[in-house]
Automatic annotation (TrEMBL):
It holds the Pfam family RmlD_sub_bind. SUPFAM superfamilies: NAD(P)-binding Rossmann-fold domains. Coiled coil: none annotated. This is RmlD-like substrate binding domain-containing protein. NCBIfam families: rmlD (TIGR01214). Residues 1-291 form the RmlD-like substrate binding domain.
């Protein structure tokens, strides 16, 4: 089976390409230079040439703060680009697996968010991703939307790499302690999407719809930072103990509103496909080993 992976140079995209190749798929890896999803004609001609059996969309504008300033490009990629992929997939009768985000929620709920909870995005990034989801639902019944949160991995830019970089120059860090989530390992997100691809290859259908997928344990950004630095020291990536100070969102003075609760309820994907939440601490250990 031939799979088109868009956003192939991103942190999830690179993992998708690697795992799909390992599993024996015929992979068409399309980064931004190969395929500009904001241009409908580009997608039409690209799909016509490569004739994929399945599309996995890992392309997105994910710089949350910059999205407030660069609204046009954010909407062009996250909403319009997704709409273009859905339209061509519909025309060619190709299913679409799409990655979305916890930022479609406002974070005011005390428990983990289920797929049935009402969305209420706080900023341009979340709004654009929600609108992208909606274009898929309105266009293409044969889709999976996979919402993830707090993505980290050995590839690309993420919180783990930021903490390691800061730890080299500082003896202490101040990190927000009143925002909570369940970190999502990029490699595990990719594995999940490839499991779905394998099931589609076998059965020629899936239980289409929206699903949540993230790590197993609740943690604050501050708690996540402490675990990163603890494991990094154990692995010899950093040489000293770094003091991590807990601060509030208000003290951090973030220019962009972010959900205080980013926890996603993953019961649906477990019950439907038998896919369990990964241990983000174990995955973190593997990421640090790769980085070392």
């Amino acid at each position: 089976m031939k799979i088109l992976i868009t956003g192939a140079q991103g942190q999830v995209g690179k993992e998708l390409v690697s795992i799909a190749n390992q599993r024996g798929f015929d992979v068409i890896a399309a980064g931004q230079t190969e395929l500009d999803i904001t241009q409908l004609k580009n997608i039409e001609s690209y799909v016509e040439v490569h004739q994929p059996d399945l599309v996995i969309n890992a392309a997105a504008y994910t710089a949350v703060n910059k999205a407030e300033e660069e609204q046009d490009i954010t909407y062009a990629i996250n909403r319009d680009g997704t709409a273009n992929l859905a339209a061509v997939s519909k025309e060619k009768n190709i299913p679409l697996l799409h990655i979305s985000t916890d930022y479609v929620f406002d974070g005011t709920k005390s428990e983990a968010y289920s797929e049935n909870d009402a969305v209420s995005p706080l900023g341009i990034y979340g709004i654009s991703k929600w609108q992208g989801e909606e274009t898929i639902r309105q266009t293409l019944p044969e889709h999976i939307i996979l919402r993830v949160a707090w993505v980290f991995g050995a590839q690309g830019n993420n919180f783990v790499k930021t903490m390691l970089r800061l730890a080299k120059d500082r003896d202490e860090l101040s990190v927000v302690a009143d925002q909570f989530g369940r970190p999502s390992p990029a490699k595990d997100i990719a594995k999940t999407l490839i499991i779905l691809a394998e099931q589609y290859q076998k059965e020629k259908t899936l239980e289409w719809g929206t699903y949540h997928y993230c790590g197993d344990e609740k943690v604050s950004w501050c708690g996540f930072a402490k675990e990163i630095l603890k494991q990094a020291k154990e692995q010899g990536l950093i040489e000293k103990d770094i003091k991590v100070n807990a601060i509030t969102t208000a003290e951090y003075q973030d220019p962009t509103k972010r959900p205080a609760n980013s926890m996603l309820d993953c019961e649906k994907i477990k019950n439907t496909f038998g896919i369990e939440m990964p241990s983000w601490k174990e995955s973190l250990n593997q990421v640090l080993t790769e980085l070392k």
